[in-house]
Amino acid sequence: MINIVAFIGPSGSGKTTLAKYMNLRKVITFTTRPVRKGERDGVDYFFMEKKEFLRLYDEGELLEYTEYNGHLYGMGIKPLRDSISKGELISIVVDINGAKRLKEVFPDNLLVIGIRTPLEECFERMKERGDPDFSSRSKLYGEEIDAMTDISHVIILNTKDNWWMSRIIIEGIGSKLEETDWV
To answer: What domains sit in the chain, N to C, each tagged with a CATH number?
Structure first.
């Protein structure tokens, strides 16, 4: 049975925005990066110091973590296990490493949705939200798209011109998952 819907894609692809349209309980991940304008601790991320983050990982409370732009990002294992044991359906936004780790640990409970967006549009979105690291992201874009293609069960093209169609697809997948237990 699918309990975990993981969204992956390059930075700025719209994966977090589209995940909201699935209307599933969102698993909050952990990070050491500073809070951006409009973000709230415990809602968007659990924001913490690096020492505390690494302590959680060392104690086995984080399934995995990745470093990006000098900051750590990771996911807790307890909410995932709790949702599976309760038969709940949840969503989580992760990077490629996170999706690979989820596939290793929860192969029968996972649906991976890749969000593909043209590089230029990813950059525009990153600029709008104040993300400073465009040049290193452009170098990783091709690798991220290739890896996403290899690991995703479904890939959705999310552009400015078809965002509404992306939303309809996401809402449809979410509705189907919620109404059936055959997956």
So the answer is: 4-179 (3.40.50.300)
